[in-house]
Amino acid sequence: MRALTANRLSDGEVVFWSQGRWVERFAEAQLFADEAAAAAEAAEGHAKTETKVVVEPYLIDLVESEGLWAPLSYRERIRALGPTNHPFHGKQSEGGAVIEALQHASGAARSKGRVDLIRRK
Amino acid sequence: MPTLIRCENGAFAAAEDPFTRVADDQELPQGDVIISLQRFLNDGERLIGQHRAVGVVLKSSEEVAALSIDLAKVAVVALDFPAFRDGRAYTQARLLRERYGFEGEVRAVGDVLREQVGFMLRCGFDAFEPADGASCEDLAMAARRQRHVYQRAADGRRPAFAEREA
Amino acid sequence: MYRYDDIDREFLADRSAEFRDQVNRRLAGELTEDQFKPLRLMNGLYLQLHAYMLRIAIPYGSMDSRQLRKLAWIARKYDKGYGHFTTRTNLQFHWIKLADTPDILDHLASVDMHAIQTSGNCIRNTTADPYAGATPEEVDDPRVWSEAIRQWSSLHPEFSYLPRKFKIAITAAPKDRTAARVHDIGLAIKRNRKGDLGFEVMVGGGLGATPHVGPTIREFLPAEQLLSYLEAILRVYNRLGRRDNRTKARIKILVASLGAEEFGRQVEAEWAAIGAGSDLPAGEMARIRAAFATKTFETLPERSESFEVAKSADPAFARFVRNNVKAHRAPGYAIVEISLKAIGETPGDASADQMEVIADLGERYGQDDIRVTHEQNIVLPHVKLDDLPAVHAALAKAGLATPNINLISDIIACPGLDYCALANARAIPVAQHIAERFANQDRAELIGELKIKISGCINACGHHHVGHIGILGVDKKGEEFYQLTLGGSGAEDASVGKVLGPALPANRVAEAIDAMVDVYLSQRQTGERFLDTLRRTGPAPFKEAVYADAH
Predict the structure, then answer these.
(1) Residues C348 and C436 in one domain
(2) What digits encode the pLDDT tens for the residues C166-213?
(3) How far is CA C330 from the centre of its chain?
(4) Which of A5, B1, C306, C361 sees the fewest Cβ atoms within 10 Å?
(5) Distance (Å, whole) CA A90 – CA C154
(6) Domain boundaries, chain B
(7) Could you tell me which of B98, B137, B102 has the C-alpha nearest to residue B117?
(8) Do C98 and C223 fall within a single domain?
(9) Which chains reach chain A with 3 or more Cβ–Cβ distances below 8 angstroms?
(10) What is d(CA A63, CA A61) in angstroms, rounded to the nearest whole number?
């Protein structure tokens, strides 16, 4: 599974592609199944033409964790959440089930050590 | 063909380019030409004898010193920016003007963008082939941008410390 | 301190107007991202993981209360109420919107600040001794020369598109607080036998993927010829530095490949050809010097009774004094270091409220002079001993009285993967973990000077190569791992640390540090710092302690 992400030009906000528009929450991101590679790449191709809206759109790999999808790489999880040293900054400040799931997500991209290091003050 | 813009006494004007840029594997046409350093070193003497103006284009990796003894005979030195990030031509231009006293045209060719024209002028360039379609007005605006400069360079502008002394 | 005149102000205003125009052209689609990126970088604006990051220059780490209050105001209005002081003595805001940046730059310009050349392949902000003008050790005030360099390097027409970025440091004391030997150019101010002022010139130091300690290419450069000599160095570098490979483009690679002697010979030849025309006239140097000579110190007794009483009465104050207060050249005064390394907090971060507290204290008790250190702390360089108890009390109230300068919890850490688009791993949580493990102040003091420096990638913004213990975050198949280096120093005894062994997972780093500290405590001889013991014994016992139970 993949999702399409970028940073918004005007403010740098992390955004995700969802059915023809950019959304701020990973929870609302459109998920592209591996079989739908052509659709994912078409969306990426289109996004690259939106040069006045976003900067450097790219596809990210997702991994299934506790029944939900999360970005595979730790870097992308941090983009979808916010910095781990300020748990109330960035998207994570909203809280909610999907944010929680992202914070607890496990899979290829993380060791147990990392879980310990995520702080909640 | 990129437009040629010349700057004379602070005024920018589009100019007819009498020179033809000739690649090393090309036949030499009639008239004024700009050729590579290698071709100039091999054949420059003869070409100058043919009563035409000869210019030389230097790659950013080439040394201005290689041209120093023949400079008086050269009409144009074109300095190439293979990418605007390659800043070697700024040094080449200053050396041409300040060390070797070159008084002919120093032309910026290659990836020449309006954003860098202010720096180019200060280093002694006086002709430009903009790669970004910039007009004379665009270049004039870029050149006027900073009312003050902090360093001496090839353009004779009074640096801040000289302004302060006044 | 140097005050902008109309020329300096108009220079900033012009630059600010240009950037506003460029931002507008980008938002309107007239500039592509490829064209715009180098322009925004030249104005300190990066696109990071969560937002834009604006890096504001604090010239040679020196500012006044008015400027720090403005930074606090910007932090509240345009960021999330905090800022991050960096190892380059700059300040970064991490939550900036592109559309706001022209206004922010105008606000900065209103207090004579800017973000010019805080990124890009140009001459960056000069690092100077944060104790300048205050320490009894110094030969001359390095800020005088730093200001001359600031002006000379600002929008330098020849040196704005160098092969790579370029950093200069100036130290004027035997104790180097600038990491001069790991800068592209390190300058050490000296006097020769005749008493003339000059510089030892070191070139080609640097960190990153290939760390180098810079060799000296000139033992004594007459001070007034500094700018022409810098021009000669930069010109040789601009001509000959590699441009085919970004990772080999720093001047350290050129100096190493030519050899220091040959590089020095080329610089001398270029310098001879340049002549004195590039040096600042004596009148301008005198004008700059006068700006830094305005501090007048009251005639005070060496000893302050109220200070001594407070020390005996309050052990917390006494501890603060032991670790954070340093000798001043004027009797009755002291240098106060404010640690931005509160246990469990983000190294180098200060909230807007904290910035205002520091600004107030600097204005009221510190001759309105505030410094930033490359170790991500703040200095009030001129505080009366009589005022120290009040300063300490105010700092304590603001969470700024952590008494750990140069101790194990005074950790340098770059923003790492929590913010930075280049990072491979996080740095901040690792620093927090270690600091928490050594939160006991008695133990930290017992261990003494121990410099831990953490970088989240090989670009080494966290200076890990020159940490007594360095920690480098690496990515192993998508997981954060940390490689330890041992024996580095960024001070006058500069050295590059050596890799200890295989990288460790995040949760083993703090315990590895603990194990090495135990080795040090059991092996140290009288007066030895961690680094001294390590240099005497070699890494073997430390390595064994870290990896003994790993099998």
Answers:
(1) no
(2) 999 999 999 999 999 999 999 999 999 999 999 999 999 999 999 999
(3) 25
(4) B1
(5) 35
(6) 4-165
(7) B137
(8) no
(9) C
(10) 7
Cβ-nearest to C50 among A10, A74, A79: A79
Q: How would residue C294 be classed by pLDDT, with cut points 50, 70 and 90?
A: low
Distance CA C533, CA C540 (A): 12
Output the domain CATH number for residue C27: 3.90.480.20
On whether any CB of chain C is under 8 Å from the CB of A73, the answer is: yes
B152 to C278: CB separation less than 8 angstroms, yes or no: yes
Does some domain include residue C299? no
Apex C286 CA angle, C283 and C289, nearest 5: 155
Examine chains A and C and say if they touch (3+ CB pairs below 8 A). yes
Centre a 10 Å sphere on the Cβ of residue B142 and count the other Cβ atoms it contains.
Answer: 21
Q: Are C157 and C76 in a shared domain?
A: no
**Residues of C in Cβ contact (< 8 Å) with B151:** 152, 156-157, 278
Residue C431 lies in a domain: yes
Among B133, B140, B121, CA closest to B11: B140
C284 and B165 in contact by Cβ < 8 A?
A: yes
Sequence-separated (6 or more) residues with CB below 8 Å from residue B46: none
Q: What is the rounded CA–CA span in Å between residue A39 and residue B32?
A: 56
Compute the distance between CA of residue C467 and CA of residue C444 in angstroms, rounded to an integer: 17
Q: What is the pLDDT of residues A27-43, one digit of tens each?
A: 999 999 999 899 999 99
Residues C431 and C366 in one domain: no
Q: Per-residue pLDDT for C453 more than 80?
A: yes
Q: From C331, C364, C397, give the residue that closes a domain.
A: C397
Residue listed under structure tokens 């460790």: C504
Provide the domain limits for residue C32.
6-109
Question: What size, in residues, is chain C?
Answer: 551
Domain total for chain C? 4
Q: What are phi and psi of A60, to 5 degrees?
A: -120, 150
Average pLDDT of B65-85?
Answer: 95
Distance separating alpha carbons of residues C147 and C126, to the nearest angstrom? 9
If you search the block for the tokens 């000669």, which residue do you land on? Answer: C232
Non-local CB neighbours of A35 within 8 Å, separated by 6+ positions? none
* pLDDT score at B1: 52
| Architecture of the domain whose range is B4-165 | Alpha-Beta Barrel (3.20)
The whole-angstrom separation of Cα C109 and Cα B151 is 21
Residues of C in contact with B85 (CB under 8 A): 38, 121, 161
Interface membership of C34 toward A (CB under 8 Å): no
Tell me, yes or no, whether chains B and A touch by having 3 or more C-beta pairs under 8 A.
no
Chains adjacent to B (≥3 CB pairs closer than 8 angstroms):
C
Same domain, C269 and C369: no
Distance between CA atoms of residues C251 and C206, nearest Å: 8
Which residues lie below 8 Å from residue B30, measured CB to CB, with a gap of 6+? B52
Domain layout of chain A by residue ranges: 2-117
Nearest CA in chain B to C15: B146
Number of Cβ within 10 Å of residue C43's Cβ equals 24
Identify which of A10, A14, A119 has the shortest CB distance to residue C27: A10
Q: Which of C241, C271, C292 is the last residue of a domain?
A: C292
The answer to whether residues C365 and C384 touch, using CB atoms and an 8 Å cutoff, is yes
3 state SS of C74: helix
User: Alpha-carbon distance C452 to C450, whole Å?
Assistant: 6
Helices C260-274 and C226-240, packing angle to 10 deg: 120
Distance CA B68, CA B62 (A): 12
Residues C309, C335 within the same domain? yes
Domain contains C129 = no
Q: Are residues C441 and C358 in the same domain?
A: no
Cβ of A35 under 8 Å from any chain C Cβ? no
